[in-house]
Amino acid sequence: MSFWRSSFARCGLIVAVLLAGLGTCWADPRTSNLWWLPENATEGGVYIDQLIYFILFLTGAVFVLTQAVYIFFIIKYRAKKGVRATYSHGNNRLEIIWTAIPTAIFIGLWGYSNHLWWDVLHSTPPANALQVGVAAYQFGFSFQYPGADGKLGKADANFVSNDNMFGNDPDDPDAKDNFTSSTLEIPVNRAVHIRLDSKDVIHAFYVPQFRVYQDILPGRIIDWVWFTPTKIGKFQLACSQLCGSGHYNMKADIQVVSEADFEKWYQEKAKAVQPQPGAKLSSITETKDQ
Amino acid sequence: MSQTIAHSGAEAHAETVHHHELSFFHKYIWSEDHKTIAIQYLFASFFFLIIGGLLAMGVRYQLAFSGAPIPLIGTLLPKWLVTDAGAIQPQGYNGLVTMHATVMVFLVMMPLLVGVFGNFLIPLKIGAPDMAFPFFNALSFWLFLVSGIILLSSYFAPTGFPAAGWTAYAPLSANGAYNGSQAGQSLWCIGLFLNGLASIAGAVNYITTVINMRAPGMKMFRLPLPVWAIFITSILLLLAVPVLSAAAAMLFCDLNFGTSFFEASHYGQPLLWQHLFWFFGHPEVYILVLPAMGLVSEMLAVFSRKPIFGYKAMVYAMVAIGFLGFIVWGHHMFVSGMNLMLSSTFSLSTMVIAVPSAIKTFNWLGTVWGGSIRFTTPMCFALAFVSMFVIGGLSGIYMASTPVDLFIHHTYFIVAHFHYVIFGGSLFGVFGAIYFWFPKMFGHMMNEFWGKVHFVLSFMFFNLTFFPMHNLGLNGMPRRIADPGLYDFLKSQQPLQIFVSLSAFGLGLSTLIFFVNFFYSMFKGPKAPRNPWNSTTLEWTLPSPPGHGNFPVTPTVYNGPYEYSVPGMDQDFLPQNQPAPKTARLAVH
User: Rounded to whole angstroms, how far apart are CA atoms A226 and B465?
Assistant: First the structure.
């Protein structure tokens, strides 16, 4: 095959690689932060980021290595007059090596991932964790805080209705003084243990800066998600599971504030709300000014 | 490239074979000839590819220019899709996303890989006159076509396309009050049900044909890799697709007859849908890539003029993928709310399934090593397949790790990942395979120069479109959000969104070059010889295109499929039906 053809193909490859790099440079990294991960704002997120960088390093190395070898072969072994291809059907020793090494790496990676999954991200939340109920509906979120007793009380998916978004047990006195908010106000450096339920379809609790994602299921209360915010500031909660015509705009604000500010906010809200048999939709609209 | 063609006694008569003339109807419409059915599948998939591509253009237009009326055609589009001014509405966007994926998966990639190449290649490569059940085969195509028409017909429904995503997560998909497209979603269920029947009919046919109709001497370990790949794929289809069909029927009942399989408000189980869907859906991912792996393996061997490196390792790796493919579906559901222990176990099986893919990649590298590489258009696509598949495979490791999935689940990272596998992988493989087998299908050659132009442009634009999506996803861009500008943390991404969209338009346009080349060459391309690529497998011993009934005399197979550059032979390939000359020093392996 003529040299022109092979060089043509290689030029194409080179141009493509360059342009692909250019594409990634498109957005200004200083303003968009697109080169690296978005800022991390939780304790658990640190571990996730470390793992991402580790996998990036691992896969990056594998990618560069295999592609370098591959492109080297492609160029070196292009058809040349009078040179025949090597006649080889393979090599069993190589097969064993390149089966065993990836297997060991992947199982090791699983071991570490699994350790994080259980021992860090889904361990038992600390006793002083702030309990917050999160109810999702087409198309919004509502948040429920425990009253003065610090307890949300029992909840069951069977109780979830328009009048009882959080599925509070009507017979549980602990739930009587709960109050609701349309924004998620949380104190910095204290664990937040959220209890998720949905009134209608599947929604999701997704905050990129918190490195947290959890689907919110109708008919099931999910109570294993907790995180400890480490940065004061405003964040956004996005529904990340397609949930209907209003999905594109289903979001809520999250305010991470100092412990003192939170205490102030909490006391005001707790005082304002009379004990009630479970949060009602109407009470959500009342607190919209938040 | 020399045009030496090996003739055995039987083949010399091939051109003179005479079959009774078929009527127009039986020749082109209800044809039971596997080659005609393959071509019917090809044209139908092209039609759907154009539709699916246009839907993707709509999606990219919305993400880049949210709220801007679509130029020229905006006001002509139906009201469920666009506003009065002609800009895409959020619900219309959901419909575009849903149908783009549904069309591309069920009406483009599956038929292209399995319908076209399964049909065309299996009998020709194993030395059979046709499929085991020709009637079933024709039925399969027409069921497929009807399913496609039903799926697309929802465009004309007042509420438009189904809008619950191609994964159709219940209860959104199970209740018209939730999804706002009762008619579209119901048609989706019917369409997928029929599509499933077509797949099952096809799968039964392929499996039976491969097991029962191989020519004498065609041992299982002498099968060309595309046949192995489609054979294993067919087994996956046979076991996975019925589950989807059943689930679609259940969903249809939930939507229309008040049953409550998936509706939580009536004690149904939303997660049941996800388990059923992904029990089908993960083998489906391998259904969409295994055949392309087979096709690419063959092209790499032919154009490197080398035996495939580690033939048996390749087969075992595919068998392993097929088996493991059935126990990894839960990795789509790490954060779905299922038991956390299940996430652990599915994470392990998912890590393990990466191993056979790694094995295949290393063997492709081994095949290219020491070769005498010819950079034809099919070879360029095959070479690109390997690189793109490596990217798609490596990005999968991120999702396999449960803690990382907590962060990037349902973001554009996953969109980048599966497009690298299904577009950069499978569709590139299919493009290569079309350039490669076009001469055998239509008796003409495709234009090499325009083939290269198509390759370079689509390779560039593909990477420019999909690589930046990794960054978008890591930066927090969720899938299926009609207007990212509404989120504070996504505003800075807008320039990159526009860049991705412009690249996607370029990718769409580059495909036009392919279509022009294809249809021009069909009629005006240079006449194809029997064996333009000096290939070893049986289809190249026949005239281009082969006559009805394929082989005038059943061939006898003496060699493995990839005996290239055998020492001691003048010509650098040894056809499967030709006994090795005494001087040839064949390797025993």
Answer: 36
Q: Which CATH architecture has domain B289-526?
A: Up-down Bundle (1.20)
Whether cis (ω within 30° of 0) applies to the bond prior to A139 is yes
Shared-domain flag, residues A223 and A150: yes
On the question of pLDDT at B9 being above 50, the answer is no
Q: Is A140's Cβ below 8 Å from some Cβ in B?
A: no
Residues composing chain A? 290
Contact A9 B343 (CB under 8 A): no
- Longest distance between any two alpha carbons in chain B, whole Å: 78
Write the Ramachandran bin of A167: left for phi over 0, alpha for psi from -120 to 50, otherwise beta: left
Half-sphere exposure for B184 (CA within 13 Å, toward CB): 31
Burial A209-234 (b: 16+ CB within 10 A, else e): bbbbbbbbbbbbbbbbbbbbbbeeee
Confidence of residue B95 (pLDDT cuts 50, 70, 90): very high
- B432-459 b/e (C-beta count within 10 Å ≥ 16 → b): bbbbbbbbbbbbbbbbeebbbbbbbbbb
Please give, rounded to a whole number of angstroms, the shortest distance from the CA of B298 to a CA of chain A.
Answer: 14
Q: Are residues A45 and A185 in the same domain?
A: no
Report the pLDDT value the prediction gives residue B8, as an integer from 0 to 100: 41
**Reported ipTM:** 0.90
Closest residue in B to A108 (Cα) is B351
Shared-domain flag, residues A188 and A277 = yes
Both A150 and A108 in one domain: the answer is no
* A37 vs B: CB within 8 A: yes
Same domain, A245 and A273: yes
Choose among B583, B581, B540: nearest CA to B3: B540
Q: Are residues A98 and A151 in the same domain?
A: no
Residue ending a domain, among A121, A146, A172, is A121
Tens of pLDDT, residue by residue, chain A (290 residues): 444 455 555 666 666 666 666 655 554 444 455 567 888 999 999 999 999 999 999 999 999 999 999 999 999 999 998 899 999 999 999 999 999 999 999 999 999 999 999 988 899 999 999 999 999 999 999 999 998 888 899 999 999 998 899 999 999 888 888 999 999 999 999 999 999 999 999 999 999 999 999 999 999 999 999 999 999 999 999 999 999 999 999 999 999 999 999 999 999 888 876 555 444 444 444 443 33
pTM of the predicted model as reported, rounded to 2 decimal places: 0.92
Q: Do residues A178 and A48 both lie within one domain?
A: no
Residue B72 φ then ψ, to 5°: 65, -65
**Superfamily name with CATH number, domain B31-271:** Cytochrome c oxidase-like, subunit I domain (1.20.210.10)
The three state secondary structure string of B280-346 is HHHHHHHHCCHHHHHHHHHHHHHHHCCCCCCHHHHHHHHHHHHHHHHHCHHHHCCCCCCCHHHHHHH
CB spacing of A242 vs B172 below 8 angstroms: yes
Minimum distance, in Å, between the CA of residue B230 and any CA atom of chain A? 22
Give me the residue spans of the domains in chain B. Answer: 31-271, 289-526
Test B387 with A67 for CB contact under 8 angstroms: yes
Residue B165's region, left for phi above 0, alpha for psi from -120 to 50, else beta, is left
Q: Which domain holds residue A67?
A: 3-79+88-121
- For residues B469, B471, B477, B478, the Cα torsion angle rounded to the nearest 10 degrees is 60
What is the bridge-based pairing of β-strands A212-216 and A203-207?
antiparallel
**CB contacts < 8 Å between A and B, how many?**
364
Cβ contact, residue pair B478, A240, below 8 Å:
yes
* DSSP reduced 3-state for A285: helix
Read out DSSP for B46-105? HHHHHHHHHHHHHHHHHHHSTTPPPTTTGGGS-TTTB-TTSPBPHHHHHHHHHHHHHIII
Q: Which of A87, A244, A251 sits opposite B587 (nearest CB)?
A: A87
Of B310, B347, B358, the CB nearest to A110: B347
